[in-house]
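#struct-pred
JK: can someone run the complex with nicotinamide-adenine-dinucleotide? inputs below
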Amino acid sequence: MITRITLNTLRRAPLHRSLSSRASTVLSALDLHSGRELAGVYDGEWSGSGEVLQSVCPTTGEVLARNPDEFVTQATPAELRRALERSREAYNVFRDVPAPKRGEILRQIREALAEKREALGALVSLEMGKIRTEGVGEVQEFIDIADYGVGLSRMMNGRVVASERPGHSILEVPNPLGVVAVLSAFNFPVAVYGWNLALSLAAGNATIWKPAPSTPLCSIAVTKIVSTVLERNGVPGAVAGLVTGGKDVGVTVVDSKLVDMVSFTGSEAVGRQVGQAVQSRFGKVLLELSGNNAAVVMPDADLDMAVPSVFFGAVGTAGQRCTTTRRLYLHSSIVQSFLSRLETLYQSVQPGDPLDPATLLGPLHTRQAMDVYHSAVERLLQSGAEILTGGAAYRDLPKPLDGGNFVMPTIAIPQSVDVTDPIWSTETFAPVLCVGVFDELEQAIEWNNGVPQGLSSSLWTRDIRNVGKWIGPAGSDAGIVNVNVGTSGAEIGAAFGGNKPLALGRESGGDAWKQYVRWSACTLNFSNAAPLAQGVQFSNSA
Ligand code: NAD
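RT: done, structure tokens with the ligand placed:
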């Protein structure tokens, strides 16, 4: 983030750079190449005259702007207050729009997104750094959950409950909740918002989005697409508002009493603060936090499936998924064969421009993420771990990749498995995989469950008895419990989320929508008497 004073200095400075053609092509396809400041606030109107945000391409290090006038402008405190108030006003209008009509608007949003699928996917790739198919796949997730929300808009049913009193009926009614604030992480700059928006909009809420400060262009591009549909339908734009910015903007949104539910996706450290802040004002909070996910490979596993899946789980998105495989527990009888095949795959992968369809390994998102990677490797070395492969940043990459944040995917074998040691118990948001060896499944399950995070887990086996143990009461305690499927790459149909303190909440499919509504238990009396529940008598005229 840079201040207005710095920006003015930049404006006066001669322009020494021009936007690369790879970046220019992606930005132009989404109308983000205007030659003017990009407003970073949308509340029915585009605005923003506060601090400015710089978007830096993780692949090349270039600033994603053609000149200093193209930086993203955040809201001033007054503009932020206005955006929150407009969300509230928009909710007051939108809650009365019939749910199937809300679904129809969502269907149009789905169509508008599908038209821009490739362009938006390329922008995700450019700004976040994930490979192109993953960028496009992320937009597809938004499209899929919009489809889901369209159906849901006709199925968000309550219940009729039998009353103990004659001539009475009890209804459980899902009403719109209010304003839902979505605070999202850098690594899914489109899909996480999509998961929330689709359910929130179908439920009749207004949503206000505070994206990660390092991916403002993705959020502006998405909001342009969504707001065009809202405006075309005569719906207040603040039904899907946007406030770009960093921590200060996030804190204001989280503390605002105008916000009924905060849906936060991000790190454990920030999630802890957000959770406490929202609960201190008795607001509703949904937390999707860190993952420290394990894959367990049994002796009977099909290694032709398991090895490439673990490779994708650990190296895909350069280790920057919440569901990335970070711990690998191998049965002692297959350690050698598994690791030699995995190592071969690791050594075959080459870093490249994520926009190039042939690339499988993109950069880390920021320079700070590289520091996290180096510290993790250093800590492993100091503890006596063997680094089987990787362990360093790539050097001597050709231009323009030499300006990017490329690190080697790393396999480490710590001296022992101690799930209380930070090596095993913390999430390193980079491609570092720690390997442990077990003899009994029960041991591997204990290690799987022994960390504070409980997001995703995966067992590789052909033995139905192992499957039963793994998914049963004494099995994996994570929210995602897979068998012969890697830890990452969830579909939208099931509810997504973790089970333990560091990963609470459910998003996307399943029953997740029930969190986005205000439940009303309504007892209706159709009779000519007014009996009390439980037969209580309270009348002096009876
Ligand atoms: P982060 O916690 O640094 O930031 C998340 C969001 O919170 C950003 O929008 C940030 O600006 C905002 N923020 C920062 N400080 C704040 C404060 N004090 N109050 C309010 N908002 C504040 O996370 P990140 O580095 O962007 O993302 C990586 C993390 O996200 C990883 O830990 C990853 O596991 C997690 N993640 C989890 C899921 C999931 O579904 N469980 C999905 C994606 C990412």
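RT: quick notes.
Residues 302 and 461 are 7 Å apart (CA to CA).
The first strand starts at residue 38 and ends at 39.
JK: thanks, will look after standup
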